């Protein structure tokens, strides 16, 4: 069998000798023979096609470990290798689309262009008992966390009907490759249950020691309902800006971090189906009374559970009639974010596929919005 030196092989394959030496060290494209004395590498004619495939895949920006997998498949099953290339490129196009949306968002913030219109609504949530699991984790760890945490909380006790019973995520910090949150998964449980009444030990019911129980006071919350087709980051960033602007304009005070209320199963939802609420809990407003200043008691509900609409292309419900509010503008560089957004944005999409397998607490009206952090 005639062998080629590395120089000749480099010309045949359009790969440089430097690249060939790297691929040899990585085990991606080892020579047929290496001289034990001189260290010279020798290649065969049979390796030319595989080497050219490697060169083409590198032009796609494909990582070397992925190339190694595809090259190994191509020798035995070219059809499977072609499908693997298609899957890789679909992922690249998805990331490119997200980055294109991010570029548009950044440009809008820099130039002060008007943001998109959103139907911003408010509702009252009564006092409820929550089971939760909180964790510091990076983006790569979220899949395992969601799958395990949802199962634990489902097993802890009966849930609550309606929108108040939907599980939700709270992002207290960004969850990404560089930042570890923390983030919290919460599930409302039925009033009078063993967990709610204190009869049962939470750790015993849930089977784990890191499940916490707390009573959340009644509160109002402002939210934007989001359909499946509009999910994902950075597409939701303008919605977060709209919520922040609404809170500032209305003179309200956030009672906690931004939430992602999970109201539908994304695995079976149609593109136009609402799947979650982007929401911000609000501190209750006390009526203005003459005389000594009074404090709102914790858990007191305002507005009798009414749900209203306002702001950014939505009608503001004031009984009869209403008024149109002008479109808001995204915050400008250096404007100082209000702090109500806990940016767990990178992780939110991963929560959806692990949700709702009988988790309970669906919005029977088919609504629900999305709280993303």
Task: Give an account of the 3D structure.
With 373 residues, this protein is an alpha+beta fold. It folds into 2 domains: 81 residues, Orthogonal Bundle (Multidrug-efflux Transporter Regulator, Chain: A, Domain 2), CATH 1.10.1660.10; 202 residues, Alpha-Beta Barrel (Multidrug-efflux Transporter 1 Regulator Bmrr, Chain A), CATH 3.20.80. It contains 10 helices and 12 strands. A hairpin with a 6-residue loop joins strand 2 and strand 3. Helix 4 runs antiparallel to helix 5. The C terminus is likely disordered.
CATH class of the largest domain: Alpha Beta
> What are the segments in which pLDDT stays under 50 over at least 5 consecutive residues?
289-308, 310-350, 352-373
Q: Which sequence of SSEs, written as H and E, runs from N to C?
A: EHHEEHHHEEHEEHHEEHEEEH
Please name the CATH topology of the largest domain: Multidrug-efflux Transporter 1 Regulator Bmrr, Chain A
**Biggest sheet record:** 9 strands, antiparallel
Structural class: alpha+beta
* Cα-atom radius of gyration: 27 Å
- Assembly state (oligomeric): single chain
CATH superfamily of the largest domain: Regulatory factor, effector binding domain
Strand content: 15-25%
* Principal-axis shape: elongated
Proportion of helical residues: 25-40%
Instruction: Kindly give the count of domains.
Output: 2
Mean pLDDT: 76
The total count of strands amounts to 12
| Termini gap | 62 Å
CATH architecture of the largest domain: Alpha-Beta Barrel
